[in-house]
Design brief:
Number of strands: 21
Bound molecules: ligand BES, manganese (II) ion, zinc ion
Number of helices: 14
Strand content: 15-25%
Distance between the termini: 32 Å
Shape: elongated
Structural class: alpha/beta
Radius of gyration: 25 Å
Largest sheet: 9 strands, mixed
Helix content: 25-40%
Length: 495
Amino acid sequence: MEFSIKSTAPEKLRTDCLLVGIYEGRKLTDLAKSLDEVTGKAITLALKSGDMEGKSGSTLILRQLSGVAATRVLLVGLGKAEEFSLRTLRNAFRAALKASPAGVEALATDFASLPVKKSDIRAKVAALAEVALDASYQVNAIKEKKAEPKPLKQIALLVNKEDSGAADTGLQQGQSVGHGVAMAKDLGNLPPNICTPTYLGKQAEKLAKDYGFKVEVLEEADIEKLKMGSFLGVTRGSEEPPRFIVLQHLKGKKSQKPVVLVGKGITFDTGGISLKPGADMDEMKYDMCGAASVFGVFKAIGELDLPLNVVGLIPTCENMPSGKATKPGDVLTSMSGLTIEVLNTDAEGRLILCDALTYAERFEPSAVIDIATLTGACVIALGHHPSGLFANNDSLAKKLLDAGEKAQDRAWQMPLWDDYQGQLDSNFADMANIGGRAGGSITAACFLSRFAKKYDWAHLDIAGTAWKSGKEKGATGRPVPLLVTYLVQQAAEKV
Ligand code: BES
Ligand code: MN
Ligand code: ZN
């Protein structure tokens, strides 16, 4: 997708499709008013004929308006003018892209110039670029290619001349987030026989080469040397060798403590000996979406050349049953020295993350954020809209909540109270790896918190947000927008 920032008079713009916003109650935007003038009230007439009210998401196509250079004008409902926000702007743009007829290769819109409370050009342009990249994403499906109409290739964003500098900045940020999201989706959507721990290791090396990151891909022997007994307990049952990936983007001051991102990289979760039921088990290929989001964030900050120190840690393996697999009742010794009684081998995410959290200590981080498709219980608690957020530091939690709000990639904070810790008691080790059905996503976070005592830490449970099921099955690339927005904010604060 190619974007451009333009300050041409909209009616003179040669394009396949010009988007024109209409507020609810048939209220015209400035662009709609000026086109209405040029065309001898063609827009008012079309609206009056009852075809369109301006309800959010509604659209109406007009062709060959005299005095307008664009081949088509797509009227787009924006909803109530007084409720117009960055969120409704995104939704309207998404609806417009969906409604733009097949064969439209170039499209233009003044949406970035629509007034939105508490928002600026930079944010609006970033949001539009992100939505366009998200909406035009196509899965690299392994099947016969059908002849399809030419896809949308160019989007021109119309802004006032004096806004074009800010618009450029916004465009860069929006595109980087969009590319990061696409990378996270690509990795998530790959079949698990291709997207193995070895494959992820190779992708990390490739990404590092493209953007100049430091990279280490540790193999099983290295992981043994580090005494990551908990991580090793999960990979035991699998024929695929594990990897522990360390990515480093060091573009801040040398003395600046890094933000460490830890992504759960289970490339397939069968449950292990505590085998999962068969229905929908294919979706457990998405159990590496935390890892995929770390890749996506690195792509975005690499593209942006963000002046910040960021470390990415990815423990990655499969969770399989076999004669060698860890059994319920087995006790593992984690890298921290704490011992864990494995009561359910399907609670494996926390077992690979806890060793990565211990490994994170060596970076003396300013903050550690782990991202994991950790618990089905989080989906029960919050559904598929927000990611679950847990933190041992309220100021870090607030920054992440704000970033999610700004990026429209929201999280919702859940409690991490000591009251829940007792559910992890074990008679045979320092802790059990499960805490019963009650508050399942909270006890999972409590488990992790025991390994994150030495720094400010947050945990994002993305079990409900990382992918969609059903007819639209596919990875979402979340929470890349939240994380990049947080890191951009961090970089701004540190300059
Ligand atoms: N990867 C799953 C969590 C999951 C399940 C995410 C379904 C999205 C949809 C995780 O490893 C897991 O199996 N968790 C168990 C924990 C339980 C055994 C305490 C769960 O949620 O059932
Ligand atoms: Mn599991
Ligand atoms: Zn899992």
